[in-house]
Each structure stands twice: as structure tokens, then as C-alpha cells.
Amino acid sequence: MDGLEGKLKGLSLTRRSHQDGAIYLLHAALQPGGLLAVTCSDRTVHLQDRTTLDLLGEYRGHAGPLCGLTFAHTSSDLLYSGSADGTVRAWDVRRPGTEAVQIFKGDPSHSFCSLDLNCSDSLLCAGTEQVDGEDSFLVFWDCRKAGGGLLGVFSESHSDDITQVRFHPRDRDRLASGSTDGLVNVFDLSRGAEEEALLLTCNSDSSAGEVCWSGSDYTQLLCLSHDEGLHLWDVGQVDSDQPLTVFSCSDARSLTPLAHGGCVDYLVGGRWLEESQTLLVVGGGSSGDVHLMACEGGGLRLLISLEGGHTSTVRCFLWDAAGEALITGGEDAQLLLWKPGGKQLVGGKTHLLKSDSALKLKSRPHRKHRYQREKK
């Protein structure tokens, strides 16, 4: 932690990339040892250099808002994006601007709001919105098969939009899913049918937004809710008499007082940083400030606040361990690179004016559940 803390406290803004048009940057993914990919609210996927942030190309093809992005692990020239148009598309990053090399579809009624790929690059999963006011579905494909390789669906474990699916980083058959029904489920897909595969259910008592595997053996699950709650469960305790809950707070914004006496306005997400054995939680301020926090057994601890970068809500972040850099993207159409000891950009904030049409591009909130995300 000491090494990471020193690096984070030395972060300064070294690169700024403004995307063309009044768009939001929604999700980001790093190719192992290579490129940076970003989803945008205009339904495009941008491919960028991870050190200069230069735009290398873009992919078009989705007809609905994008819901997620991930590179393959072993065949890292493949990039997968999911969309509310009911498709997951695979792109060849060696050929920017070309058509998708593979398209995965479920039932025509499916509108996807999450996706992930397992660690062996064999299984792809997408979570759907609620269908016909009843069930939502986890849809599975064998992505090694031509023609989409649809394997089937789970339909009984969630009753509302499945906002997050996360495969275990080391176990190809372990999957976690979160939903606006407030439930976070853990499955062992090697057990077969849905009823046998469901290992446990954790209740966040709110609409689950972000789910993240964490801990030295990835036996913990972090859940961030749409109303800024934070829950950390030790799912490795499922077969013991020990409680699953490590820490739980219905509103984590008040846990981290800032230097000026204010509080974090919203939570962006969490990531387990294996090199430093740290669970990093990122929050934001209404003015665009970024707050980096360590999630520990007793709650959140502020590590550093980064100012002078974004001018609006931050929507995504990545920690590039190889480059020792933080990458953030937001609703101001900016992608920023923060590095320790880097040359500070001059000129301060660029105040960007958003048109009315741009404001309407923001991904719609999950509307059906009583726990609705407040506008930030």
C-alpha cells in the first residue's frame, strides 16, 4: 500500500484528449500491454493510444446505447462491446474502423445492459433489461463457435435489469451478477442448470450498479449501489458460520470528509489492484474533481483528490499498473491521463458548454425499480 499511496499522491494531469462532439465517455478497457478502448454515448467505440491518448480509430455498428466493453484475455486483439440493441459485437483492434468480426444475439426481446468475458475467453455473458415487466435474463454464448454460439439463458435469479455481470479473474466458471432488484448473485457455472449453479445471493437493499471481485484470492465482492451505497462481502465464507458482510453502508459519500470540509458527491466504481493488494474506490465531485479512496475493513480512506481536470461528472476510470497511470473519462467528453511526477498541464480547466441535445445522450437510468439512481 505504501508504494501505491506514494504513486497516487504524486499524480498530476499529463495528457488531455477531448473527443469530437458533445458526447459522454461511458466505459473504458485496457488491452493487456497495448491499447485503450472507450465507449461513447454516440454509440461508437474509440480505440486510443494508452500513453498519448491519440485517437487511432473507431468502430460503428451498434444501434442502441452501449452497456460495456472488455478485451479478450488470451486473444487480446479481440474487443467485445455490448449494447441495448440486443447484440454483443467483437472487433479486431488490428483493423480500426472495420465491421465487427462476430455478432452475438439472444432473443429479439433482449436489450442488454451489461456484459463480460470469462478468463479463458471461452464464455461470454450478457445481462438483459427486464422483459415484459417480468423476468430478466443472463444470456450465455460459446464465443469460440462461429455464428454466435448461443448456449442458453438463466431466467430465475433476477427480477429486474441486470446492471452488472462479472466473471471471476481466475475461475472461468465463477460469475457474479448485480441487478436493480437489489440482489447480487454468485454462480458456479460448472454445476450446470441455474438452480444448481446459484451458490449464494447477497442483498444490497438497493439497486446494484457496480460489482467487483476483490481480495488476495478474489474471494470478496464489492457492490456499489445506484444511490451511493457500498457493500463488501466475503463470499469465501459461504460454507462457514462466519458472516458474509465485511462492511456495509447505505450512503458511502459521508464516509470520506474532504480537505475543504465537503464530501464525495458520487461513486464512480471500484477496482482491486493486485500489485498493491488494495481495493481502490473512485468517487467524484460535481465540479469534476476525482477522489481516490482505499476500501478497508472499516470503511473508506481518502488517498488523494485530483483537481483541475474534468469539468463534469466522471463516468469511468482505469488504473494502468504497467504504466503507473490513472485514466479517467467523463461527461465533459474528455479522456485524461494522470501520472506520478509527470509534467503538469497548464491552462487549468477547459470549460465546455453542453448543448441540449448532448444532455439527452446520457444513458437512461434504470427506471422501473423503486431504487432509482438520482441525477448527478
Written overview of the protein:
The protein has helices spanning 2-9, 194-197, 356-359, and strands at residues 11-18, 25-30, 36-40, 45-48, 55-59, 66-71, 78-83, 87-92, 102-105, 112-117, 123-128, 138-142, 150-154, 162-167, 174-179, 183-188, 198-203, 208-214, 220-225, 230-234, 245-249, 266-273, 278-284, 290-296, 299-306, 314-320, 325-330, 334-340. Helix content is 4%, strand content 45%. The protein has a four-stranded antiparallel β-sheet. A four-stranded antiparallel β-sheet has the order 2-3-4-5, with no helix packed on it. Strands 6-7-8-9 form a four-stranded antiparallel β-sheet, with no helix packed on it. Strand 18 and strand 19 (220-225) form a beta hairpin. The longest helix has 8 residues, at 2-9. Mean pLDDT is 88; it is low at 346-376. The two termini are 31 Å apart.
In brief, what are we looking at here?
The protein is mainly β and 376 residues long. The protein is built from 3 helices and 28 strands.
Which properties best describe this structure?
376 residues, mainly beta, four-stranded antiparallel sheet, 3 helices, globular, disordered C terminus
List the helices and strands and how they pair.
Blueprint: H1 2-9, E1 11-18, E2 25-30, E3 36-40, E4 45-48, E5 55-59, E6 66-71, E7 78-83, E8 87-92, E9 102-105, E10 112-117, E11 123-128, E12 138-142, E13 150-154, E14 162-167, E15 174-179, E16 183-188, H2 194-197, E17 198-203, E18 208-214, E19 220-225, E20 230-234, E21 245-249, E22 266-273, E23 278-284, E24 290-296, E25 299-306, E26 314-320, E27 325-330, E28 334-340, H3 356-359
Antiparallel strand pairs: 1-28, 2-3, 3-4, 4-5, 6-7, 7-8, 8-9, 10-11, 11-12, 12-13, 14-15, 15-16, 16-17, 18-19, 19-20, 20-21, 22-23, 23-24, 24-25, 26-27, 27-28
